Records
---
Amino acid sequence: MGTRPANACLTGIRVVEIGQALAGAYAGLTLADLGAEVVKAEAPEGDPAAQTGVMDADGVSAGYKATNAGKTIVALDMRAESDRARLSELLLRAHVLIDTHKPGVMERLGFDRRRLTVLNAGLIHVSLTAWGRSGPYAGRDATDVAVMALGGGLDVSGSSVGPVPAYPPTSDHAAGMQAATAVVSALFRRERSRRAVGGMRDGRGAFIEISQVETVLAWQSPALNEAWRGHPPERRQDLLTGGLAGYQVYRTRDSRHLAVGAVDRTAWVAFCNGIARPEWIARQREPLPQRRLIDDVAAVVRERTLADWYGVFQEIDCSVEPVWSLEEVPHHPHLRSRGSVRAGGDRYEGLQVRSPMIFDDGEPSERPPMVRAAVDGVLSNWSVPDRPPAWTGDPPAAQATDAEPQESPLVFRSRYGRGAGP
């Protein structure tokens, strides 16, 4: 029997993931990286993401395979009563539910919070939506660019021409990470609560609401506070928005790009010496935006190729790096030395990007390819654990939950009532 991977902290935790949003898929991937057993339920026709992007010879997209690595995919037709019953059986055995449906969908399918609480009082249910479960936008469609626009994530990004969509989608991945953090926190709280529910193996569950827009909004807290005080950051005008010569992306002679992050004094001195312009060291204090200095640096960078500049700054530590293409990134010496990216046997086997979470100097577990399985097969392997007493009172949703807006995108509610803890 092999040694358990160092990052397998969630071994034995069962996760059911339903919905098609990338945020939920990334949350599930993160939990799988930590050792959880993740079962993703899809409609019989499959997830549209499987047919989006670069397709492999088997007719499934490369991106879909990467996002669902390590998961078991099962087909459930939620229009059929028999498959809704199978989902109930999965949730009876699960510890975590990641749900990315719009508000109201789970209720229409018969899985409202009261039903889930009675079914499995220890379940940690993450409702992961674009706009949140309340408010005028709650039922609206959304993509990352719209969420980023409303949450303030696009206002000062991009070039002088205007904002640009982020890739990969920022709000999806950020909310997915937030969801995984919330799940781990709720699991820890539940572990501490076991003694309060008669020593059962599972303690109290939770209902956790996370929205992509509030995740983005939380990241904007410093900028929003500056704007509130009458000094909003502006695109191409401020320290980190394109106004500083030492924080730019410059074009090289061969139409590649060099990223310069020489913000502090030591780095700026090293950078100026690297481009053979020591007389520009004193210009670091020029007022923002430093348009003349930016133009001067740009002219110098355009004189040489990216390979030339790479050779120069390999020997100078000042936060300067070529903008590597996605084809080049896996071959970078630093990433290769750390084993951050591993290639398959051929092009269609793809690459495996290692989990960024490294515990105790160990090696993260390999991400096995996703597998498809019958629901009944999963159920036969998942026994029904001991549970805390089923809650028979009013569901948390029926209790007063009005509160002042919070900066955090997480809204924890115990299944035994808001604020009930261990």
---
Amino acid sequence: MPLYGVFYFFILKVNSDNMKMKTQMRKEERRAVIIIGVMLVLLMFIANADAIGLGVVPSRLSVTDALRGEEYEHVIIVHNTDVMTTTFRPYAEGELSNWISYYDEEGNELTNITIAGKNSTKILLKFKIPMDAPSGNYNSTVYVENVPASAAHGGVGAQMLIRMPVDVTILVTGKQILTGIVNGITLQDTEIEYSLRIKTMFRNTGNVVAKPVIAVNISKDGAVIDKFSKAEKAVKPRTIEEIPVAWDTTGQAVGDYLADVKVSLDGNVLYEREQPFKVLEKGTLTRKGILSTLSYEGEPAVGEMVKTIATFKNTGKIDTNAKFTGEVHRNGKLIETIESDEFEVPVRETTTLISYLKLDKPGNYRITGYAVYEGKKTDSKELQLEVQGVEEKKGLLPAIGVVDALIAFFCAVLILSRRKEWKKWKK
């Protein structure tokens, strides 16, 4: 029986004893017991209320001109404003509740999400419009609420629930709209054996998925020497995507070139631009990069595997290959090295370099590392983890908690008190 049930049982027992003893217990004593009981119940909530902090933005979402059978996306950001790690769950109420699914930043569908203290994360909401949905306005509310710690671990306990609403409105229409806007096209000089990267920023202003066609003509000395077109990137409604295409310079000569880039959608030309560029000798352009962050995912506990995440940004003038390498110290002593796979990082882009570490013993772990690219190194960054073994968790009450311990203590005192009163009554 849970301790809250035991507590309830003893309250009933006291009432039963009071009926038998009638006037043996003074009114002041009864009042004291009731006040103590109420205070303990309040403690179950107050002790946990201070440990919850939640914020969600934005507070309103809308989809206009939604087409039946299509899928639309929006992102909300959940902030855990408390210092403690907390688990939250998103859910919806209203007529759209069956249209909505929830995903983490890596694209995995989720029901709960755990956020470290003073951190935030993004939740992707996908709205799938049924084929038989009548035209009209639909409204719902998406809630994000904390999951009590005991429930998250399959236990029983008391914790105050806090939830934040996000109002959602979707207008379903039967009209297909295929439109888009090009916000710009960029490219820059490259080197022999490195690809020329052409990037188009495309905004889908319609209500269906769009696949714009990117057609490129490459000229040298006034003559077209190569041409190609791509229509591979699907852009979802009401979103902006960068569409990259590349031209391989292998076998081409050093010199000046001209790229004619044309973007079209559904047979209509949206944008066209001519841009000169150079193909240079290998090694001409600057290689440069920074290690912007070093973090980890996973539980820092003995026997667990943690994932180290190094974020590398290519700030140079040419694509570069990068990998992360690091040293692991435990209690000040070097125990091993870790390393990620090597990846090609395009100009001005960022990638995550992943490596793994098994925590086989308790202690203070310090991970120090840097990114290696084209024979160069970034500045180092450091990460610390305090790993505790099971044997070090002394003096804690993980199974029942402080509030449950107080209730158990109160019940024990109550039993002893009642036994003493019974003895006096029998005499």
---
Amino acid sequence: MLQTVVGTRLTRWACGGLLLVGSLGCGPVVGSEDTGGAAEGGGTEPQATTGTESSASDSSTSGGLAPCIEALEFGAAGAISPQVVGDQLFWATNDGRVQVRPVPEGVPEDVLVTGTSVVTFNVVGAGLLYASEGEVRILSFMGDPAIPVAAEQNNPLSPVQLGDRVYWLNAGSGILAGRLMLRDLDGPREEVADGLGFPRSLVTDGSDVFALVSDYINDAGELSGVVLRYDDAEGGLEVLATTSSPQSLRFHAGRLYWLEQQGPGLSGPLSVRSIDTDGGTALTHATLEAFGISLAVDDADAYFTTLDAGVSRVYRVGLVTGDTEVVLEDDNAPIFGVALAPDAAYITSIRAAEEAQPSDVVLTRICRE
């Protein structure tokens, strides 16, 4: 079945129902025209419109053939939260595992098997920092048992390590029930910030930690989504930017990037936004009509995933050029995650348990060159 989306010819992928830009079947496509490759970063500052008011016309959305698209993994357990660390790709599954495989080629192996659902994880040094079922733990890749960081936590997520400290978010239960938590690895845990409504993500730049929160009451008594900075050395919380229904905070090269739904609620245009870790004016890199899910960023591009009217898509926006294109589409509406390597984007897919099949494509590689 052929379809046309934003000027690009798409073919239904025979294995898993994916609609793939520039592919006529499973596996890589040799000799496809590359009209939308990654722009060279070269240290160039991102170019974007400023301010919070944007419309879909602010970004040029066009079609382009990916040089290759390849199915890497299949299964009913799905895949979520992909991370590329060096030449290794990590992801979690719906049945409580974290897996790893070399990129671009290799065989997946289990890093962690919990038997429960893994909420979020980060690769830190020679180990895995993860939050699952009310606990935060560190697992060494050297084969030692997992070390508990904190137990009896209220929906912990997004743990990060900064020196000898581990930070994480507790989503909590109820209105403004979220917390930012801290533990020195040789000391007790602390609550360093409260009143966080629906915290989404936590990242570090190696000096401070940054939280993306959906609901927060500022000093003026106003409720909004925010990007927060917590000073690791001195303590104290600072609002860097206000936002609306945000998702998926990422740090890259001195800037924080996130997806913003311009509401009300979860409706309205979706934007890719960023701000310097020291604050300043937020930039808007792309705006279109969809619901945002996940984001990944490097020097050249931001890749982000969306869901719109039962169709899942992966977009690429050039941070220098501002050009936006669809690189992958699935009309069976899985939830997509994305991670970037220099030569490829890796897309994870997960479906509801009652819909999942062993033949589902759960990991896809899209060439960037």
